[in-house]
């Protein structure tokens, strides 16, 4: 007779705090493991970067899961880069990263406070000043090589502001910048 024991992959959020729903996180990580082992191709670094989990009381601690996802995304990005270089060559990989970086720079070359579309005055978006500050750091990285880690963009958080920047546009640009950073490491 074997005893069935279940264990949590992560610590649970403290009482009174929400955490990620363990069953959903565990299921996603199992899919990611199968993809990394080559059994499927359903999970990529981009899927990992954009995954969202439902919140619940006593769920997995958010920071611990997010840190694990960042490491997992890095591992997938390295593997994807190696595969692309093997299939198309280093020059093609670098050209793709350069093209993506140029698209980001074009967007960020717009004047401050006008880099992204705004939500209506009665709705809240991201703080324009805070987003512009991060945009300036991305520009400095892409144009001058000023140090910037993917983790800094993954964890960027912006206060809400009435009439602020549209969240979807800012999030898409941050994702594109993370892809570039991971591509040129």
UniProtKB/TrEMBL annotation:
Top-level taxon in the UniProt lineage: Bacteria
This chain's protein is named DivIVA domain-containing protein
> What is this organism's lineage?
Bacteria, Bacillati, Actinomycetota, Actinomycetes, Micrococcales
